[in-house]
Specification:
The structure is a homotetramer. Chain A is of the alpha+beta class. Helix content of chain A is about 15%, strand content about 35%. At the A-B interface, helix 1 and strand 3 of A face helix 1 and strand 3 of B.
Chain lengths: ~150, ~150, ~150, ~150
């Protein structure tokens, strides 16, 4: 069982805006990229049809921004499982700037996702319990790992 | 003085993802577009050098998603000033799907922005009081408008 | 039958990059938005299952950029059908800046799209003739409209 | 002197659209990312003030798409200098899918960029010769490398 995963991203030109800093929307992209890499690290894909076709729509996303990022900055995106519920997962995502001194936290986000099944006829999404084969691989992070 | 503004956006092809719904990141784009349109509606631009060069970095952004949007859906993005502080503004943004029945709320977001001055030598951002010429045009929404 | 359609877009904050101008990728987004609006103007959707499920993957896209666009510029995106072939369409897209003097052309693009059917079992895309109900509504622009 | 550089990118969820494939705009993002990584591989940054503040606006971008990419595909983005002119560079970019058999070319693009100086008073961009310190590090690729 695992409760965390870390990816590294570079601030690319297209991530910047006319203020010369990374546009805040990219923090949300990076959260999702870390979530999907976490699943891959467990030998799964977020896009699965096994044991059945599942989706993971976002029900809540939030981020606090404390320090601006600039072109070619290197960012650690550290995802932790904050809550493991029957039909949903809540992640904490800590962003740290790796280049420059000091190595600092620059943002901290939350992502809550529901496990859903899609009715192929109507397209309607229904929350379902996380299948055992997936749930057995994921654990909630201990309080000390969450830094709270 | 004004405390709200509404824009309408259509879900374009590029907003969708392989789940067939609008990617959640676009809700954050639409929040920002509504904020900037609100400033224009008051005869200002979010990108101003009058009375001095100012920036409005995001310090917090959040959104709860309650209903999926699809290609060619039409969305009302209703921005309200939830809090007017000395050096920052907090907005509530209500998203409603305009096509189809019933006309429903599909998401609700929060955007908190700081008023900053940028040191042209160091690039450092410093929070400053919102200039009077701007503050005089913006009011906090009454509780009943916020639907709380 | 129709051979052209025009939409207007504003340069939003998120379209800009650290050079202070609109990132070139957005010209491609606007081309596609004009193509889809063209279909809607003919009472159709680019996402159709009638008379059969069709897709319109891009086979070629190109753009020449002659003038930079900035935040809050207003742009006319003028799409013209340059070629109507049996299984594909080629569009010319002319971008004009509407604010400021003179009203000038700022970019000119090309988009070539194929009409395809998707095999639901394998996911394989196969080029097919444009269905008559669609082809009958679309005409190639006269040479003088293309300004060539 | 160098004439090529290769980066690898994964197709992320946000790159996909409702057709279930990577949206074509991302090929243009990847071209630019490869260009900037090429500069870094030469000990430079595309964002430089040494020997003087320079910019590299795109004057032309094009891409032919021959095979659809899907979520979690791995792509080699191979950039080659096709032409080295006094005031501009033209790149060929070859995209290859690394996972699955056969390892195939999926798209081929062109990017032409001008070397410009920006007038800090007016913001006007003026094409200038590529500074010697930069030009000395970049070479045009031999015809056989371009596969022509």
């Amino acid at each position: 069982m695992a409760y965390e995963y870390t990816i590294v991203r570079e601030v690319e030109w297209r991530h910047t805006d006319m203020a010369g800093i990374m546009h805040f929307s990219n923090f949300f992209y990076f959260m999702e990229a870390a979530e999907h890499a976490f699943f891959r690290s467990l030998g799964m894909s977020i896009d699965t049809i096994d044991p059945e076709p599942l989706g993971w729509p976002r029900v809540h996303a939030a981020c606090d921004f404390s320090y601006p990022l600039r072109f070619e900055d290197s960012i650690e995106v550290h995802l932790l499982v904050r809550e493991k519920r029957q039909k949903s997962l809540v992640y904490t995502i800590v962003f740290r700037k790796l280049n420059g001194e000091p190595r600092r936290e620059v943002a901290r986000g939350t992502l809550a996702v529901a496990c859903v099944k899609r009715d192929s006829a109507t397209g309607k999404l229904t929350a379902v319990p996380i299948p055992k084969v997936i749930a057995d691989k994921i654990d909630a992070a201990p309080a000390e790992a969450l830094g709270t």
